[in-house]
Amino acid sequence: MRKTFQYRLxxxxxxxxxxxxxxxxxxxxxxxxxxxxxxxxxxxxxxxxAALGDAADTGPERxxxxxxxRSDAVALLQTPSRATLVPCPDESVDFDTTKNLFVxxxxxxxxxxxxxxxxxxxxLIYIDPPYNTGxxxxxxxxxxxxxxxxxxxxxxxxxxxxxLTSNPETSGRYHSAWLSxxxxxxxxxxxxxxxxxxxxxxxxxxxxxHLRMLMxxxxxxxxxxxxxxxxxxxxxxxxxxxxxTSHDYVLVYAKDLASWDRKLLPRTSEQNDRxxxxxxxxRGVWASDNLLRNEHRDNSVYTITSRTGKEWTPKKxxxxxxxxxxxxxxxxxxxxxxxxxxxxMPRRKKFLTxxxxxxxxxxxxxxxxVGHTQDAKRTIIDLFGYDAFPTPxxxxxxxxxxxxxxxxxxxxxxxxxxxxxxxxxVLELNREDNGNRRFILVQLPEPTEAxxxxxxxxxxxxxxxxxIKRLHNDTGDMNRTEPEDLGFKVFKLGESNFESWRGxxxxxxxxxxxxxxxxxxxxxxxxxxxxxxxxxxxxEGYGLNSVIEPVDCDLNTVYRVVNPERDPPQxxxxxxxxxxxxxxxxxxxxxxxDLFVCRDRALDDTLAANLxxxxxxxxx
Length: 620
What we know:
Elements: E1 13-14, H1 22-33, E2 38-39, E3 42-43, H2 45-52, H3 70-78, E4 84-87, E5 101-104, H4 107-118, E6 122-127, H5 146-153, H6 174-192, E7 193-203, H7 208-219, E8 224-231, E9 247-254, H8 269-272, E10 286-289, E11 292-293, E12 304-305, E13 311-312, E14 319-320, H9 324-332, E15 336-337, E16 347-351, E17 364-365, H10 367-370, H11 373-384, H12 395-405, E18 411-414, H13 421-433, E19 438-443, H14 456-473, E20 489-494, H15 509-517, H16 529-539, E21 547-551, E22 558-563, E23 570-575, H17 584-588, E24 595-598, H18 605-614, E25 616-619
Parallel strand pairs: 1-25, 5-19, 5-20, 6-7, 6-18, 8-17, 18-19, 23-24, 24-25
Antiparallel strand pairs: 2-3, 4-20, 7-9, 8-9, 10-16, 11-14, 12-13, 15-16, 21-22, 22-23
Helix pairs in contact: 3-6, 4-6, 6-7, 12-13, 13-14
């Protein structure tokens, strides 16, 4: 017989049932800055305006960016996720040891679930979202229940209700639908970035101007870094009706431009080969540089005499780059080259040792340096044996972003992961420079109509496996100081292990009692211990590299959950048994700082009171 619902004499805290409440968090931040403007959890806008003084813009014609459906997009962002992430060791590589992650599911729900653990932890985000060409689908977000929509889209709930649809140009809110899809995802992306983090977003002309406005809104136009032009094709298209489009864009924004540390690109061997040492200069190889400027300066017009007696004077309208006194010093120190016979046009010697050991990134990325679309397709064909994914990006393109923005241990995120180009770029660059960058990839299981890989997520996972296999087979001359991480964990978005309040339309005491009886034990029928513990960990802010291990205890079945990526590591112990042995707390040596999680139904008032005195108690 089901236990009846009861109120506990000694109330206990419950574990989180949903992702972070972004509204409550932002109100808390506002309260810390303007305590007089927050009363009982509500914002007093009059007091806030008064506190801001002239900085508050209340005029009717102030500059703003909006679109149809913006308020719904904001509401969707503010709706916490009730979903969970389910571990899939069988689809992973080295699940127990790797720190790389692949999460299969709707990226908005996943980003909400990652928020507590990864806010302020990501160094680089790269995304290649749908370009909204009329053929790309738009995630049909639903304010009422985003998880239900996702489950319908993936056939997990109602195959007849599949909502994976394109966004045709005939749609009345064609651009607005795309902006509403992008806004909450970009907002959460910014929250996940470190203060010195950066985001790169691929786009074309169709939505590029709207994306720039949206990113100004989310990141602040003061944090705009650059619009990169990527030359995506190597030849014009003769069949083009107007212009043959040769490029896409990559918008680059820092979370805080003042904190972002842009790195130099490595010099290539071709660039270094331009340096030579024809006169056996002890200072090493050098390249010659022009000594003339195309303008007249009185203090820089004079005659230079070589060791052979040949004289050189600037032509009218030009002058030397250095005043005469400085030029004489350069000649004396053998920094001016007159050719092997001493009669050549004087040029300045630039030594490789004095050259900046790296290149400043430019805003034009030619295909010779970062690859083109055909390179990307050839990579897929090389891995799979056929063209398994229609629109991949070149590995070299992502590699350049990594070189500009990351160090050896940084975390990289791609929540429109597609075929998994980012994972391949991270793994290969780690192999090259002995780095330990980690990746988190998120991809919706969008149908492909292919038998081998029925969803894009399946393509992405298989690509990573094949790249890992190649790297295992090609160890080369490795000189690593830390173990190489050639693995990845797979998690999938799923329904919560907790019952959710459905309510009842009928004003009927019996119906209410039946609904309330479900919450005597909020765990769903058929719940799994490992899945339930992962959900508790995720919603309490533990990362997906946490470790769940059994505790040696004869009294009850107890687990310890450890998040090793926190400093110091955070942990809690949990018991999901129906009843608790009264001596359990003593056996576990629980202290006031220890967090202990158990089921509420396993407690009576006395045991709850005793546990609450001995440790930090939370119940399910």
